[in-house]
Amino acid sequence: AQTVTQSQPEMSVQEAETVTLSCTYDTSESDYYLFWYKQPPSRQMILVIRQEAYKQQNATENRFSVNFQKAAKSFSLKISDSQLGDAAMYFCAYRRNNNDMRFGAGTRLTVKP
Amino acid sequence: ETGVTQTPRHLVMGMTNKKSLKCEQHLGHNAMYWYKQSAKKPLELMFVYSLEERVENNSVPSRFSPECPNSSHLFLHLHTLQPEDSALYLCASSLGRGYQETQYFGPGTRLLVL
Question: Which listed residue, of A41, B55, B89, B94, carries a Cα 20 to 30 Å from B75's Cα?
Answer without folding.
Answer: A41
